[in-house]
């Protein structure tokens, strides 16, 4: 037994840290060990319970309804709002799209209108549910283009999408205008607040200027907000709220035409662990509004410090003034963002590279947590010295022959053997003798090559990579 736990601890040793305030993507850190302890114990206590049947484990139903009620207050929801706990932001988004599609049955070939900054989960939903995604480029301010959205809506549209805020640039779309366009035409409007939905209401209470985006805006029909991001809950918990029960109806699924139990589900999962529900419930009870207000104050102060550090660095450019706690910056050409990411990693800070997209340069993303505030000065120093090192080494040079090859490749025509060659050329083949597919510590060269590829080629190469990574013994 102890041996197994020791082996688990050893496996964790190579992971990113989750509680140091220095991992600025993937994890959200309150910096409060007591909250983390309560969360861990709640998850463990409910790990074996099953939300498959809400009458079998009424505790889970109670906690789910409590979480929806708490969020309803936060999101200015009217009486009659309903919601579900899902496994994460992607599942909430998938269900918002599915409910819109199936709740609008008279539309034969449904479409939705999404800004090009909307989360990739909408494209997964389009792919899974056969809903065409009509992508509208955002304006120079990185916010959804209202006129472009209006032009993209037609009789096939079942959903208009807005982000509050967008992941890549951290700005809130013009929700009142987009929701009005949808409402005038009797179409649903989903606000994806997966990453900002637990921050923005508290930011407003702290006196920050926050654009309108909640259910207080007429025409907003559903909102997604993740508990496992700025709700600081353990992973596996998000909320999808619908303005009323009729809007949610198509999300609920029952199947009685087989010889087993009648299946009755509100989400994509059927058996679902009570662990994440209990973990989220415990954290929300433990923190309450006062706790979240303080955590938001810290996360915003840390964000301000990051913005100041970026603005003070001559080689860096802030992409957009953040509306919440997400920062994106790019470089002035004397260094590249990918090397800055590597240099930060070498100094113990994990920040996330974002590849160039639709003519916009590559950038670096930081999701800033409350726990980062205590390390804001170290972060500034790490950023300064990382940029100095990146400028000294200069932008990554990709061999012109490789660049030409990448530009000419058509992912549709590539064979498995071609992908093996491409992965090797990109530095993503690992060393099978040394245990397989671990990427090198420094990844700027890989990112610089991927950056030259089209989105379709990037996807194809990364799927080939995942295919080789996810094999026993790799
Ligand atoms: C705006 C937004 N929507 C959806 C998601 C998807 O969330 P998840 O990774 O929990 O599936 C994210 C994740 O960062 C997000 O930022």
Automatic annotation (TrEMBL):
GO MF annotations, alphabetized: aromatic-L-amino-acid decarboxylase activity; pyridoxal phosphate binding; transaminase activity
Keywords assigned: Aminotransferase, Lyase, Pyridoxal phosphate, Transferase
Co-factor(s): pyridoxal 5'-phosphate
The organism's place on the tree of life at top rank: Bacteria
Gene3D superfamilies, per database record: Aspartate Aminotransferase, domain 1, Type I PLP-dependent aspartate aminotransferase-like (Major domain)
Sequence positions bearing N6-(pyridoxal phosphate)lysine: 229
InterPro entries listed in its UniProt record: GrpII_AminoAcid_Decarb (IPR050477), PyrdxlP-dep_de-COase (IPR002129), PyrdxlP-dep_Trfase (IPR015424), PyrdxlP-dep_Trfase_major (IPR015421), PyrdxlP-dep_Trfase_small (IPR015422)
Any matching Pfam family: Pyridoxal_deC
Keyword Transcription assigned: no
BP term (GO), one: carboxylic acid metabolic process
Family note: Belongs to the group II decarboxylase family. Sphingosine-1-phosphate lyase subfamily.
PANTHER family (alphabetical): PTHR42735, SPHINGOSINE-1-PHOSPHATE LYASE 1 (PTHR42735:SF6)
Protein name (Swiss-Prot/TrEMBL): Aspartate aminotransferase family protein
Organism encoding this protein: Nocardioides silvaticus
